[in-house]
Design brief:
The structure is a homodimer. The first copy, chain A, has 10 helices and 8 strands. Chain A is of the alpha/beta class. The two termini of chain A are 44 Å apart.
Amino acid sequence: MSAQRKVFFVSDGTGITAETLGGTLLTQFEGVEFDKTTLPFINTPAKARVTIEYIDHIADSSGARPIVFSTTVNEEVRAILRTGRALFMDLFDTYIAPIEGELGQKSTHAQGRAHGMANAGRYQARIDAMNFAMEHDDGQSSRELARADLILIAPSRCGKTPTTLYLALQHGVFATNFPLTEDDLEGLRLPKALQEERSKLFGLTSDPERLMQVRSERRPGSKYASLAQCAYELRQAERLYRRFNVPFVNSANMSIEEIAAVVMQEKELRRQ
Amino acid sequence: MSAQRKVFFVSDGTGITAETLGGTLLTQFEGVEFDKTTLPFINTPAKARVTIEYIDHIADSSGARPIVFSTTVNEEVRAILRTGRALFMDLFDTYIAPIEGELGQKSTHAQGRAHGMANAGRYQARIDAMNFAMEHDDGQSSRELARADLILIAPSRCGKTPTTLYLALQHGVFATNFPLTEDDLEGLRLPKALQEERSKLFGLTSDPERLMQVRSERRPGSKYASLAQCAYELRQAERLYRRFNVPFVNSANMSIEEIAAVVMQEKELRRQ
């Protein structure tokens, strides 16, 4: 086993699918260091030949075959890429034939469809959702809250903002978020602006130690970041969620993607 | 060919990889309407059995085999999923064996690695980058601009903010953006705060008609949204970019992902 293995994500588009596919597979191998390079927009035979020259050069100089994850659609480009001195894994080689068989029709072989502007409506929905999320972040504005599909509530620094932006950017969900203030938490009251929107609420909570850690990076030594304050706010937040039947999740050990997946599922939100 | 084909993205984690993989493949088939459902966190045999009951029910009632894209790692879970009345396409079935052979080691079969908190350092970098992007959006703050890896500049509504947030959230790039004001554009000057940071700049431009359309959604009938004003600002912005050797791209027909891929490549930015 070599110390470092070179990995290439090759695509005629952005390379996002190749990165996601390959990245996921490589998480299954521990103790190997992967040196990853994305080569996007490889959409002509000429670019494919330059790519292969580069990959072969790496193969010769590193002494181990590079691993190539490819999502190129064009047959001619792919045929060239396949000639490299690498382990070549191509998404289309593998899966397009069975789907063509299942659907009884040929694929279009159109390049750059997955992450381009092919679906203008879906694209515009994501931009609109992102602008909405930015304008309403952290309760900045109560204007047009009725337009929201989802309103995240939580004490400060439980992950509201990144989750909101992720849902907007990735899925076009009209999401926003609202802080729970000391007054809300002490009185176990919902912020006034949210009282008409209870069906859209989802709560986040965390572990006191984790929240203390996150808040301490921002304001070290403050009451805000103290363990007692964090524990108090989280306890009251959970009481508040239960009181108003707001579904919630503990985000302490979850990534943004995981929180987003739970919220989408719980609130039955559809991707745009 | 049936009118609508049911598609499931099944995963023991968030389902992001299955969605990306399957979504990309399905863009290659036109004229078929796909009804997509993501089933995340299918990480036990019991959940797999419920999933299969549901998929089989859909198969029977819709009259066409559903298509299932799976990224589940657990062998037992996968064996159950494979029994459904569906076209079953599994990422691990296909690719893990060749990679194991290439690396000369077995995969770990650890669940939820791809989009979870497995890599805490990478995760924290993304959150830090997102906070940085939010605090500095649209030139709100010049504080800590020296920390930025990338500063996008452009006239209003060319795509600075969504691209910045995408780069931060997806790739952990410390990106920010700065507007070009009328004064900057007229005098062909860089904003003062950016003069020390010229090597980090990347410019966006657009087409006058496209910019007019985007601005009109925000402020219909305004001078800001007029074709003449849009054309003037874009022309001056391009002159400014050329004057200061700022690389730039026309974002008019590009998705956020495509702009981000171009910027990463041009500025040789590394994903975190």
